[in-house]
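Sanity check

After download, print the first record. It should look like this:
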Amino acid sequence: GNLDSGAVRFALHRYFVEHHGWAMKGLQPAGGAWTHSMSVTPDVRQLVKFIVPTFLVERTMKETGGDGVDIAWLAILVATLQHMVKGEMMDYLFFVFSAFRLKTGQNLDEANVDRIAATFFAVYAFGTDLEVST
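Expected structure tokens:
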């Protein structure tokens, strides 16, 4: 049978936690309900990525006429979300390489690899608007 939106969110949540260690807002057990009461303050970074999983599930439910989602649609949602996350990680990595004026195809020494990794994790945690203060 087909899955309703709650079951789809649960299935996606379990998949991403088990296969990647990812916990995405909108797919967590509380579901997408948090997006209805969320207030947008200056400390909320990259709001879109937090709303997209819920939006995709709800849009897919509408696309199927409210009859639920079958295994094929579930696979499409998994692939779409994986692609989005991997694309975001690549954007961060390219940002870091550009910040250090490095080319992505060049060989790197250990010091540059360490510097890129540390900066990548900072960008991942805090976004690409890294202000340098002295």
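If your output differs, re-run the checksum step. Summary of this record's structure: The mean pLDDT is 82.
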